[in-house]
Write a structure and sequence with these properties.
The protein has 262 residues and is α+β, with helices and mostly antiparallel strands. It folds into two domains: 2-81 and 224-259, no CATH class; 86-220, no CATH class. The chain has helices at 2-27, 226-259; strands spanning 37-43, 46-50, 66-69, 72-79, 86-88, 95-98, 102-106, 112-115, 121-122, 128-129, 148-151, 156-160, 168-172, 175-177, 185-188, 191-193, 202-204, 213-216, 218-220. The strands form eight sheets. It has a four-stranded antiparallel sheet with strand order 8-7-14-17, with no helix packed on it. Strand 11 and strand 12 form a beta hairpin.
């Protein structure tokens, strides 16, 4: 009965982590480029009283064993990099990716960050930066007298200068992809950094190397489904309640044992 208390407690702790993950998904339902995640669990060690194949007599052996599991624990957070819906903004610096790939950013610590959020802005010196002020990599600078900005599906950024008949090319946006994007580490701010599990990035122009294309005037919405998360919330809550009932039942059984001496 003591074992049941700890086993059920591990289930309650695991479901608490599950609910925390659902809450994080729902909190970011309107976050541009956000990718939902789910918790993955594994069973804990087993206490074996009899192993399968052990001898039961001089001529027989047990076809199955006798073992009792000791609960569960969360083991991983799996992130879904499925593409979210594209929302029309008509903003010249709002960019969405159709297909695989990440925008590359220069972070203050010298690392390269990767994001799916394409809400860009102009810095004081005309560089294309994110809302946090991180510039694109490679850097692209817009002339101060540019009348309009156009971004093609293959990443070419061009501007129109007053008094000139032809557009000028300001730079080309390069995208990056990973063999295992689920291995990327989220650092907040819609930014991921690579790990040994994700592998090294493969960079190229949009539309090459299996990279997606760029849609100007659109933003990629979060791929969180509110209905799906509400179902996950209900399932997690019911699982938590079921484990709490096991704790209560084990407590009542222990109480009956203690009262037998009275």
């Amino acid at each position: 009965m003591i074992r049941a208390l700890y086993t059920a407690a591990s289930g309650m702790a695991a479901q608490q982590s599950n609910i925390d993950n659902v809450a994080h998904n729902l909190a970011n339902v309107n976050t541009t480029g956000f990718k939902k995640s789910r918790m993955e669990f594994e069973d804990l060690v087993y206490q074996q009283t009899k192993t399968a194949g052990s001898l039961t007599s001089t001529s027989g052996e047990a076809p199955i064993g006798f073992e009792v599991g000791l609960g569960t624990r969360p083991v991983a957070t799996a992130r879904d990099f499925g593409t979210g819906n594209l929302r029309v903004t008509n903003g010249p610096l709002d960019l969405a990716l159709e297909g695989r790939g990440f925008f590359q950013l220069s972070l203050p610590d010298g690392q390269t960050g990767y994001t799916r959020a394409g809400a860009l802005h102009l810095s004081a010196d005309g560089a294309l930066v994110t809302s946090e002020g991180y510039p694109l990599e490679p850097a692209i600078t817009i002339p101060p007298n540019a009348a309009s900005i156009a971004v093609s599906r293959d990443g070419i950024v061009s501007v129109m200068i007053p008094g000139e008949s032809a557009a000028q090319q300001a730079g080309t946006i390069e995208l990056a992809s990973f063999q295992n994007p689920a291995g990327l580490r989220a650092v907040g701010g819609n930014i991921f950094v690579p790990t040994t599990a994700s592998g090294e990035p493969t960079t190229g122009a949009p539309g090459t190397e299996s990279l997606g294309s760029i849609a100007q005037g659109f933003l990629e919405e979060s791929n969180v489904s509110v209905v799906e998360e509400m179902v996950n919330l209900i399932l997690g809550q019911r699982a938590y309640e079921a484990n709490a009932r096991v704790v209560k039942a084990a407590d009542e059984m222990l109480s009956n044992v203690n009262n037998m001496a009275r």
